[in-house]
Structures are given as C-alpha cells and as structure tokens.
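Now for our specimen.

. . .
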Amino acid sequence: MSTGEKQTATATEYAAAVEEVALVVSETDDTSLPVMTFRAWTLGMGSCVLLVFLNTFFIYRTQPLAISAILMQITVLPIGKFMAATLPTKEYKLLGRSFSLNPGPFNMKEHRLGYDIISQFIFGYVLPRKPIANLLFKIYGRISTVHALSFLSDLKLGHYMKIPPRCMFVAQFLGNLVDGTVNLAVSWWMLKNIDNLCDIDGLHPESPWTCPKFKVKFDGSVIWGLIGPQRLFGPGVTTHLVTIFSTQPNMLQESLLIPLFFLFIFFLIKKHRQKNLLPPGPPKLPLIGNMNHLLHPAPHRALNNLAVKYGPIMHLKLGSISTIVVSSAEAARQIMKTHDSIFCNRPKLVAPKILGYNYSDIAFAPYGPYWRQLKKICVLELSTTKSMDASRFIREEEVRRVVESISKSCEPINLVERLFALNHNVISRITFGDSDRFDDELRFRLAIREGTALAAGFQIGDFFPSLGFVAKFTGMNRRMEECRVELSEIMDKKIQHHIDRGKLETTERECLVDVLLRLQEAGGELEEPLTTDNIKSILMDVFTGASENSSNIVEWAMAEMLKTPNMMKKAQTEIREVIRKKVNPTIEETDLPELNYMKMVIKETLRFHPPVPLLLPRESMERCMINGYEIPSQTRVLVNYWAIARDPVSWKDPNIFNPERFQDETKDYRGHDFEYIPFGAGRRACPGISLGMTNTELSLASLLYHFDWKLAGDEKPQDLDMNETFGMTCYKTCSLRLVPSLRFPISNY
C-alpha cells in the first residue's frame, strides 16, 4: 500500500458518520488540544446545574418550558471564548501535577464535553406476587436501557469529536450525579415551599403551578409482580395476556437510581478485591481509616498489639495512605532482602521536604544515582577503617573533656544533656574541623534539636496529602521553614569559611566539609553534581543521626544498670580490670574490643530500647507479592523493629532485660540477622553505624570507669521511671539526674 493510500485509509477510519460533525471536525485528531480543562468543567457543571434546575422548575408550571441541551451548547460558546481571552495563563501546581486555568484557545473538544419486558418477565418468576419489588426492578430495567443507549450515543459522538472515551465517560458519570442531585433538590424544595402542589383538591384552580403527570410502573408491576408470568403463561392457562403497557419513567428515580447503583457496585467490587489480596487488618473508620491506632503515646506498642491479632504482615489505612506494617523477622527479611530492590524507596513526607532541602538528604532521598552517590561518600568519609582511625583522637579528646567537666560538678547532672553535647562536639569537629568549632556552636546545637523535634511532630500532609495546605494555617510549615533558614545561615557561614580557607595554604587536616567542597568543585567525577543545599542536607543528617541516637542509647543503658546494681558492678569491674593492666591507665578505643560485658549491655539496650522502634518508612516502587498478599505500588511500609525485638519466636524471655543472652549469641546489629536490626537492613540501612557505635561504646566505658553513680534525691533504683516517649527517636521520658562520685581521676591525661 502506498503512502497516499495509507493516509486515505486512516482518514476514512476517523471520518465522522454524522454529517453535521463532519462539516466542522477534521478527519484527523489534533492530540495537542486539551480536553479535561478548568474551562470545560466550569462550563459543563454550570450548564448541567442550570439546565436541570430550569427544566425541573418549569415542569411544575401549568405552562411548562423545556430548554434543550443544544440551546445550552450555543449559550456557553461565547462564554468559553471570553474565558480563554481573560483567564490568566500562569501554570499552577496541585498534588504534584501542573495545570493552567487557561491552556490556550477554547476548542471544540472542551465545548462538546458535557431490556424492559424481558427483565420484568424474569423477575416475576424469581419473586412471584411481590409487585413492589417488580416495580423497582422494572424501573431499573427501563432506565438502565435508556441510559445505556444515551451513554453510547454520547460516546459515539465524542469519538467523532476526537474526545478520549475515558474523558467522555467521566464527564457523563459526574454529570449524572450532579443532575440527579439538582433534580431531587429542586423538586424537594418546590414540594416543600408550594402549598398543595400535588394535592389536586387543595391546589387553587388558577394557580400557575401543577403537579407533573409522573406515572409509576403500576400496570407492569401488577401484571408481572402481582399476577405473575406463571399464572399468565403457566400450565392450564387458556387466555394469555400479551398486551404490554408503556408508561413514562419516573424522573426522580431515573436521575438517581443509575449512578447510585453503579457507585454501590463499584464499592463492592473494590472492597472485595482489596479484602482478597491485601494483608488482613483492623476495621477502618470513615475518613481517618486506622489513624486512631496511632494516637497511642507509643505507636510501636499499639501496632504490636494489632499484629498479635492480625498477623506479622498487616494492612492499615492511615488517613488516605495505604500502609503495610511488618512485625516479624521473616516478614522483614522479605521486605529488606528478598524484595529490597522494590522497597528501597522513601515516601515523600513533609518534614524531609522542608528540613531536608527537598529530599536531598541521605535518609529520605529517592532511591537512584543521587542517593547511591551520597551513601558512598558518607561511608568512605565516616565509616571506613581509615576514616575512623583519622578521627579517633577527636573522640578520645572530647570524652576526656566531658569526664573532666563532670568531675568538677558539685550538683546532680542531667546525663543526656551532657551526652548530647559530647556527641555534637565530636560530629562538629569531624564535619567542620577544629578552627571554627566554637563559632555559633550553641545556637547550631539548639537549632538541630528544634529541627528534630519539629520533624517528629504530626504532619497532616503525611497522611492526607490533599490537605497539606492545612499546615500553613497551623504554623507547622512556617516553624520548620524558619528553623531551616536559621540552620542554613549557620552552615552557609561555616561552608564559606572553608571555601575561603581552601584558597590559602593550610596544614589543617581535611574535614567532611572540605571533602564535599572538593567533590563539588571536581563536578565531572560525580554522577550527580553536588549543590550547596545538597551539602547542607548531608550535614543535617550526620548531626541529627549521630547526636540523638548515641545519647539515648547510653542513657537507657545507664538506667537499666542503675535499676540492677549487680549489672553495673559487673560492667565496671570488667572495665577497671582491663585499664588496670595498662601502663597508661586511660580509656582508649583500642581497649573497647576487650569490654565484652559492656558490649553485651549495649546490644541488649538496642534490643530492649531501640532508638528507632519504627524504622524509617519505605515505599514500594512496583506491585509485589509477599506471602500470598498483594502489595500495590506506592504502598508505605513500616517495619516495627520493637515488635521483632520482643517476638518470643526469636528471643527467649523477650520482655526481660538480660545482657547475658548475647554471651553465646552470634547476632550482629549490622543488618545481617533480621531478628536484630536496630539500624535497619538492606540498601537503606544506616551508613554511619561504625561511627555511632564507637561513640556510644567509648562514652559509656569512660563513664563507668571514672565514676560511681547513684540517683539524685531519694529515688530508689527499683522505683526508677522507665517510661518512654516516641519521637524521631524513642527517648526516656524523665531524663536521668545522677550524682557522680569520682573513682579514678583524670590527672594522668
């Protein structure tokens, strides 16, 4: 076939069979013309409401007036042209999509977008002598046929007008819902406000109003429902009634029954499909779904209670977000190892967007080349043996400073505050170097803590994305933006200092900021270029992760040992025995491998008091089957590590704090054993485990070696408050206030 013949065949295929359409519509489709536009919906819905209102209103008049759809089509044409000439052409963003109120000239696609007897016969046999049931079924049979033919007619015309069938059907469906609602509302309003409207005897003879002559399917219901086909056509009947009466459909029922019926069927099908394929879960409340279960002060405990009833893989509807909660080691293995490539993405939450410079941090960056690049940089510069050896002297110096500070204290100390300051100073020196470590240090530390607290707060946009704008009225977004601005000012100043210093010859060691600036300047060596905002987001992650987690782990470990004095005595004896053998009696990182019991205490603390009981949420990138359940694409996944760590299947006596359980236990916290994953596993496991755990071990060992400890005031160990507060990390509700007693002074330092 020649090119010309192909073009002719294509044109013939799309030629309109309606002559009037063929006169104004091209035979070839212009796919660039917009269809589902703001103008089309405004004019379509406005015309629908006005047309139904006027026709319903005038049908109650003694002199009725009928307004045709063609007349309304003619009326809206100049209005559409006027809107195209006056509406702003600016593009807006809503729910992640761009749209414009005025995408160009008003086009024809926008302008246009706006089995009876057999059913009765069958139904008469199904439900004999039930005329009301037959009446309703007859109405449905008649109306379904009429509406089906009308829908098909409009779809066919829309096809010739080059309007996509899905767009046409959506307009038809919504139009039916709107006109049915308006029809019912107008009729109800008139019947309620016009006295005796449908009372023939009570209505004044000269009244301009009348009751429309609506006829129900009375005769059909009597014939097929009351008498029934069995008595009409069954055995022994000599006279067959074959006359079929034709009556007018009831307008209100015609308007409402069809859309309501299809909505009901759609709801049943959707619910049945979800019930069969999704994991089990608790009943869902209207609008909020299962959000009520997150109102618990410890959501990880509430979710564990649900998992006992519904299983280790559970489906919840948190607001409008479909969420899978995993509560067993085997289920976690499926998510974080077997199908890790599918579940390695992060959901787009509100706080990481604002505080994380539009998801450019390591924790919440979308999975891809940029994230892989960030993780590689952080592992190389923070967690390798070479980088750990290079920063060892910083950790040891800062720990000594804290020990010296505590030894001079004459009052009870807030342990977690001292630990947070210690870890912050360590990270600050590793990140920014030594030259400007005290510049704006307190202001920066407070801003970090404020940002962490804000990120842990409830964000309505995380559960109802379409209601994210509400945060603008509550002030949450504004507070996060102000916090980000303050953090940016401090970090910009520090980064600029390093840029200026880089232009000079200096012997000072290279810190993390220097490395990132060098990589930024190299540019071509990276898959994705590093911006200044990218650098700041990396620094934010390093500070929040290392400072908060390490501080809380040490505080929980101290609390458990204070509650069980024999445990603390055993740990102190081990540490002091190791240091006593040294020529220089000081705690160094090289001593840590010998402190087996202290390491067991820390491991048990990570199991019993995990810093992040609900691991950072993941999101499926495609549909996946797990244990026979279907996990749809873009489903949020929460791994309840707290439940896994308390699972009696994996742990003996899981609700007892017992460090000795790790004496012969080979489980490791680096993500290889899914019964024990305090820092996650798979691709999205924490990249700073080595740095964080070294800080934790060195801090705890120094506190136990140099001091004996007791609770402040008259508090007894057995009465120690062990309640927890859920946030970005799970921290002790009542901070430890302790009285230190110096046992081994630091004069040898």
